[in-house]
Amino acid sequence: MKIKGTQPAALEWGNAWESQNGLYAKQKITNPKTNWIVGYSAESILRLMAQDKLANGLAIKFFVHRPSEPNDWGQNKTISEGRNLSFLASKEGEFRLWFQEGDKEPFEFIFENEGDYVIWGPGLRHWWAVGGKESTIVTVRWNPVTVVSAGVVADSAIQPFPATGKTGR
């Protein structure tokens, strides 16, 4: 992976296969050997999905990006909402993601190795382009929802099932 520019606060990066990668060394994250990218044992705000939280609006995309794709496919993306995670699922690739916070200098992230990932929160403008190598990218989006009390959640779009206490739409 390669990075260029000033990293926005609502963005983290790393490689799922490496325990002492850029995320832990440069961003001073402790306990890097859990191997969880997102979960209740993750030790960062963006990657933490605490056991008392639910997720709303889950979306997962798997796509093989080829160098022959039109450049405009990755342009003009909306401002990010919720949490977003993209990672390189192929053995190698060259996939570029740019992030911009307001008028600040864009931050460029280049996926090159299997497991390279970037996770970002709300409020970032992003865009992407395929480099010179085919790249299989998996992207996951979700909105964390905090449980207020048993059977009641902060997001009114999710309602508890009457008999079980489980939640759903």
Compact summary:
The chain is mostly beta strands. The protein has 1 helix and 12 strands; from the N terminus they run E-E-H-E-E-E-E-E-E-E-E-E-E.
Description:
β11 and β12 form a beta hairpin. Helices cover 4% and strands 44% of the residues. It has 1 helix and 12 strands. The protein has 169 residues and is mainly β. Residues 19-26 and 155-169 have low confidence and may be disordered.
What is the number of domains? Answer: 1
Uncertain stretches? 19-26, 155-169
Percent of sequence in beta strands: 35-45%
Largest β-sheet summary? 6 strands, antiparallel
Give the CATH superfamily.
Jelly Rolls
Calculate Rg over CA atoms.
17 Å
Q: According to CATH, what is the class?
A: Mainly Beta
CATH architecture: Sandwich
Element-level helix/strand string: EEHEEEEEEEEEE
Task: Compute the average pLDDT.
Answer: 78
Number of helices: 1
What would the keywords be for this entry?
169 residues, mainly beta, six-stranded antiparallel β-sheet, four-stranded antiparallel β-sheet, 4% helix
Q: Any chance you could write out the topology, listing elements then pairs?
A:
Elements: E1 2-4, E2 11-15, H1 22-27, E3 53-65, E4 83-88, E5 92-100, E6 107-113, E7 116-120, E8 125-130, E9 135-149, E10 152-153, E11 159-160, E12 167-168
Antiparallel strand pairs: 1-6, 2-7, 3-9, 4-7, 4-9, 5-6, 5-8, 9-10, 11-12
